[in-house]
Amino acid sequence: MTEAAGRRASPLSPIPAVLIAVVSVQGGAALAKGLFPAVGATGAAGLRLVLASVMLLAFFRPPLTRYTRAQWAAIIPYGLALGVMNLTYYLSIARIPLGLAVTLEFVGPFALAVVGSRKALDFLWVLFAATGIVLITPWTARPGGLDPLGVVLALAAGACWAVYILVGGRLSKLVPEGQGVAAGMVVATLVVLPFSLVLGHLERLTPALFAASVGVALLSSALPYTLEMMALGKLSSRTFGILMSLEPGVATVAGWVFLREQLTPLQWLAVALVSVASAGATLTAKRLPLPVEV
User: Fold this and answer.
1) DSSP state, residue 68
2) Is the pLDDT reported for residue 6 higher than 50?
3) Cβ atoms of residues 280 and 126 within 8 Å
4) Cβ neighbours of residue 5 closer than 8 Å, sequence gap 6 or more
5) Structural domain spans, the chain
6) Residue 141: is its pLDDT beyond 80?
7) Distance, CA of 261 to CA of 106 (rounded, Å)
8) Best label site of 66, 191, 202, 254, fewest CB within 10 Å?
9) DSSP structure class, residue 202
10) What are the φ and ψ backbone dihedral angles of 54, each rounded to 5 degrees?
11) Phi and psi at residue 13, in whole multiples of 5°?
12) What value does the mean pLDDT of the chain take?
C-alpha cells in the first residue's frame, strides 16, 4: 500500500481513535500475558513482533532494498530500541502487575518531556511522578511484595521508550512514518527472535495459541499504530500527549478485569500521580515528544 493509502481519511474522529488505540494496546498486553504460561514472556514477545512485522509490511510495503545507508542508519537504532523495549516490557509484566509496569514505563517519555525545563510547574510534575515511583518501588523484600527485577525491567523499558522517541524523530525525517515503523519492526524482530527461540517455549505453540498471538499483534501494534497515525495529523501534540497519559490507568483496569490483578490503594495512588504528572508535563513542557507505543 502506498503512503497516500496509509493516510486515507479515518471514519473515526481523532479523539475516539486515540482512546480506542489506548484500550487496544492494553487489551493486547493483557492477552499477551495470558500466553506467558505456555510460551513464556520471550516467546510471546517474539510472536508479537513477527506477526506485527508481517501486518505492517503488508500494509505499508516499505521498499527495504532501496533504502540508502543514511536511512538504514536511522532505521536500525529505532528498531533496536523498539525490540529491547518490547522484550523488557514483556519480561516486566511477567513479574509485576500490568498497570504498575506501564506506570513505571511512562517515566521514560515523561523524563524526556521535562528534561532541561526550568518552569516551576514542571518541578511539581517531577515531584508527582517521583512520589508515584516511590510508592511503587519495593524498598524491602516482603511476602507478596513487588518483584524488584520486574520494577527494574519496567524502568528499562521506559528508558528504551525515551530512546525510541528520540531516534523516531530522526527516522520520520528520512523515511515516511508508516514505512519507517514497518522497517523498524523488522529490525526489532531480528533483535528479539533469538531470545524467543532460545528462552521461549515456541515448541508449545498450538493453533489456538497462534490465533491468540495474531490477536496480540493486531491489538498491540497494527490497530493502535494505524489509529494513532490517523489521529496525529488532526490533533495537537498536547492533546495527543494528554490522551496517552491515560495508558497507566487503562492498563491497571485491564489487568484487574482480564487478569484479576489487584493493586493496593497506595499503588492506585501511584498510578494516578504518574498519569497526572505525564498529562501536566505535556501541557507545560517546551518539548513535546509524542509517546506513540508500538
Assistant:
1) -
2) no
3) no
4) none
5) 11-284
6) no
7) 19
8) 66
9) G
10) -60, -45
11) -70, 155
12) 87
